[in-house]
Amino acid sequence: MTTAVPASSAGASSAASPDRAARTQSPFWRNMRKFADNRLALASGVVVLLFVVMAVAAPLIAPHDPNATDLFRRLQPPAWMAGGEWAYPLGCDALGRDILSRIIYGARISIFIGTAVILVATTIGILAGLAAGYLRGWVDTAISRLVDILLAFPYLIFAIGLMAMMGPGLSNIVIALAYKEWVIPCRVVRGETLAAREMEYVEAARALGAGRARIMWREILPNILSPVVVVSTIRMANVIILEASLSFLGLGVQPPTASWGSMVADGRAFMLEAWWVSTFPGLAILLLVLSLNVASQGLRDAFDPKFHD
Amino acid sequence: MTTTTLPRPDTAAGDRPEPVLSVRDLRTAFKTSHGIVRAVSGVSLDVYPGECLGVVGESGSGKSVTFASVMGLVKKPGWVEDGEILYRGRDLTRLSDRELRALRGKDIAMTMQDALTALNPALTVGEQILEVLRAHADDLPRGRAGRAEARRRAVEMLDLVGIPSPADRLNEYPHQFSGGMRQRIMIAIALACRPRLLIADEPTTALDVTIQAQVLELIADIRARLGMSVVLITHDLGVVAEHCDRVVVMYAGQVVETGPTRAVISDPKHPYTQGLLDSIPRLSDLSHPIRPIQGQVPELIDLPPECRFIGRCPKRTPDCRTGIDMRPAGPGRAARCILVGEETEA
After folding, report:
1. Nearest in space to A78 (alpha carbons), one of A94, A63, A90, A66
2. 8 Å CB contact of B172 and A22
3. Which of A267, B10, B132, B244 lies 20 to 30 Å from B53, alpha-carbon distance?
4. Is B260 contained in some domain?
5. Is residue B184 less than 8 Å (CB to CB) from chain A?
6. Which of B73, B155, B225 sits opposite A207 (nearest CB)?
7. Tens digit of pLDDT for each residue in A220-229?
8. Which domains, from first to last, does chain A contain?
9. How many of the other CB atoms lie within 10 Å of CB of A20?
10. Complex ipTM above 0.85?
């Protein structure tokens, strides 16, 4: 059959590069626009982005080498206090290292581990959750029981145990945290998949010959991505705290690499005479985690259908 | 109707072409906490090449389940107990999942009741058409040329179902279309691989009356152009009267009457069909009373062998207790009622 297609040449050119106006009409982007309308959430998102930029551009921004010691500046106070100087705005630690530079470099550890753990955990969680929720049967039983077992362990103690077994190191922290973290996205994905598999568009896809894999990836996954994004953001804040906790306990990143958690731990001994050593990295953790939480709250409000107008 | 000027399949039994789809004594059941519900019990029907078959019945009559069985889409806790589903001579009940999947969408396609929920909200309509093409169109070349060709066909399909500026709208999401347009898109997706048989499950139920007519005309028009067969599942006899060559009336999991549409509607043989026709309001004769059928469809659990319409039938006799098979009732017609034979004898 030869149907004349009007303006097919013009259409084909715009079709080759899908036009942006239409792209942004996708449900995901509509929700992101709603997110941008929430000023507080947007501001938090910007703060998170600033931390990311800081981490990426650390060598360009940091005023000093974060590991350069200077015993003459041992426990030097912040610039605005007596004995401080503007070259070292947040003061120095017990080895005379610039605290600001160490915070800037420490952001790399926090953000790298937060991102890596969430990426690994979300990938595993999506795969396992889709399989459990769509295939059901023994696959579901096996995955759900494993999830239940992992949930029964206290997170930090579990991570401490793993770190003690594997020894310190960046990749070991990621493994230790992702080991348990994946159950969170897994449960979200499984629940959403259970609901989505009953939708009529899934039935329609089956009626047109779609196989299991295609239904899971193309029909279900795009529709359940929003809650996964929201949960990932909330969990990233949590993972950052856990990394800081591990480093604080000396099981995380090893010295002299700067990590916010170990910086707080370093300052513990001098809390009374040099409060700034612990306080500023602590504030950095607080600010990043708070921003992530507020941003994720905004995401949830934007994505949750119950909050829609 | 102005569009359908198809040569109607010869209604006289005997010299018909081979049916595209032939269902024989199909039984589909669902396990529930109350017992086994026999949603389809012994349905037989044929769909001939190029014809439009109307399947009518109220909710719970088993019409949708019958065609879900044909598509192999009966979900747990339901299963096809018995029967043959012959598609061009192949028994679909004996095919593997993989073979059935290859058939679905390519040879037999189905559109769902509600176009508002049957399109994936997260994918553009173009992606949804391309999806089907990618799964089934073996003749597409690989790589860039194949993608361009698939895209060209998708645009062609949208154009075929009457979507204005189809190439641009390919990149839009379902929520950017009206209800009628979405129904058209669903038809376009179903027709993307040019199936021989289209099963349209209540294609107009969710639509305004004016849009209903457009969509039905579209289906009739495409049927004529592509020469495919259409099964129109509906509860609206008016739709059947206008668009279908033959009609199958279902009640409580059984076929109760079948025959050429015009004959069945002008002279229904089964009291249920008569009841359905009497319960349609007529604009031409407002004094004509609407007579609803009293009572409800029986629960399909452990039914006695008696006629299933017995509880609601105005013409019931003691003989109806014994139950009855389909009886011939004129050229190409049959009905499941003991009165049918008696009338002819009288």
Report:
1. A90
2. yes
3. B132
4. no
5. no
6. B73
7. 998 888 889 8
8. 108-307 (1.10.3720.10)
9. 9
10. no
